[in-house]
Specification:
Radius of gyration: 28 Å
Number of strands: 11
Structural class: alpha+beta
Number of helices: 18
Strand order of the largest sheet: 2-1-3-4
CATH class of the largest domain: Mainly Alpha
Order of helices and strands: EEHEEEEHHHHHHHHHHEEEHEEHHHHHH
Strand content: 5-15%
Distance between the termini: 69 Å
CATH architecture of the largest domain: Orthogonal Bundle
Helix content: 40-55%
CATH topology of the largest domain: hpI Integrase, Chain A
Number of domains: 3
């Protein structure tokens, strides 16, 4: 437990005894006399986590303003007394003093949140928000603050979809805290009038991957990426589902992949029939001893989506296929999923089977009254595979050596 002095110029928090700022070499003594230095109290919770709180006092008009060194010493003494009287008391931060940083620590430590496939994206989005509002008292947030945040992120060159996502992630965190009596309705109210920066479906992509591009990508891809692209193009699985795929999810006897709810975006179990391309790829992949993940890089699970993105970017460059959303004709890995569903339509696969295989929710009463069997899904996959093999056979003759590569994989 200690008191820290924040330099008003470089904002570095350091020991109170420092006479010269350790970050910018400014005269802290002079700045303290001018009342420009802010003070913080740092302490450790019973669970080992460290907290920092800016020392604030109530002004005559009711506003909270930064306090001086005497107020900082009083705050430190109060924290010491609390720790002696009740060590767990410091874990409960009153709503009137809770900052967004403290709220984020609580939210991101929740087990249901940690289990989400999008946990890393949630963590990063909230961190971006807290770069500006981290030390802000949660209940003091106003709609104007959020509108200013949107404008600031736009000036930084962030896409409207990214800005909307960050606001949405923080709103979800606030709602969770409100439901658990950690914050009051004032904070929830601040998000109500905020309008999205992106019009609905304005950034919807239309790009699909042509058969010729698919063959070139598989040929150019690194060894660990080839089977991933092949399985994706034959099943429509998401990148997160592919990275999380385990040997225990593969039912070879029934010829299906059984994804549990905790690895799917829809948070429900998914059954995906395997065609001969997928079976051949999975049969050739080496097994590892210390884990049962299917797709690996240097015998280790592919935990980060960034690694898969970089490998796919390299394959696109090598294959001469434009990559990225910024390029007019560029592709991203998720476009393979759209391609699969589009190709299934071309193959004559019924919409119910397309939605079920890809994990999309059935609409209306179909969700209650239609329940395709695994045999139905196998028949739908067979129809898609027959169409796909025909398209591949027409394409390989135009791609030179690729014809030899695919001569055996297109045979059932």
């Amino acid at each position: 437990m200690a008191i820290l002095a924040e330099c008003p110029l470089c904002h570095r928090k350091q020991a109170v005894k420092n006479r010269i700022c350790a970050g910018c070499d400014n005269d802290l003594v002079k700045l303290k006399r001018a009342g420009k230095v802010h003070y913080w109290v740092t302490y450790r919770l019973a669970n080992g986590k460290q907290r920092k709180e800016m020392v604030k006092v109530k002004a005559p008009d009711g506003r909270l303003i930064p306090g001086g060194i005497e107020e900082a010493r009083a705050a430190e003494g109060k924290k010491k007394a609390q720790k002696v009287e009740n060590p767990t008391l410091l874990e409960r931060v009153p709503a009137e003093r809770m900052t967004f940083t403290q709220l984020a620590d609580w939210y991101l430590d929740l087990k249901p949140v940690k289990k989400l496939a999008s946990y890393n994206r949630i963590k990063q989005g909230i961190a971006n928000f807290n770069r500006i509002f981290g030390e802000r008292i949660v209940s003091s947030l106003k709609p104007l603050d959020l509108e200013d945040y949107q404008a600031k992120r736009e000036e930084e060159g962030r896409a409207p979809a990214t800005i909307d996502m960050e606001i949405s992630l923080v709103k979800t965190m606030i709602t969770k805290a409100f439901d658990n009596d950690l914050v009051d309705g004032r904070t929830v109210k601040a998000f109500r009038p905020i309008k999205r920066k992106l019009r609905k479906a304005a950034n919807a992509r239309r790009r699909t991957v042509a058969i010729e591009e698919y063959l070139k990508l598989v040929e150019a891809a690194a060894p660990h990426l080839k089977p991933i692209i092949t399985v994706a193009f034959n099943t429509g699985m998401r990148t997160g589902e592919l990275r999380a795929l385990r040997r225990s999810h593969i039912d070879r006897e029934k010829g299906v992949i059984r994804l549990p709810a905790d690895v799917t975006k829809e948070s429900r179990d998914k059954v995906i029939p395997m065609n001969h391309h997928v079976k051949a790829v999975l049969a050739e992949l080496p097994r590892t001893i210390h884990h049962d993940f299917v797709f690996t890089y240097q015998n280790e699970p592919i935990k980060s989506p960034g690694g898969l993105h970089n490998s796919f970017l390299t394959a696109c460059k090598k294959a001469g296929v434009p990559h990225g959303q910024e390029h007019p004709e560029g592709i991203i890995f998720h476009d393979i999923r759209r391609t699969v569903k589009t190709n299934m339509l071309s193959a004559g696969v019924d919409k119910v089977y397309r939605d079920t295989i890809l994990g999309h929710s059935l609409q209306g009463m179909d969700a209650h009254y239609i329940s395709p069997s695994e045999d139905d899904l196998h028949q739908a996959m067979a129809r898609y595979t027959e169409w796909l093999d025909g398209q591949i056979k027409e394409s390989v003759s135009q791609l030179g050596n690729l014809g030899n590569t695919w001569a055996t994989t297109t045979q059932k």
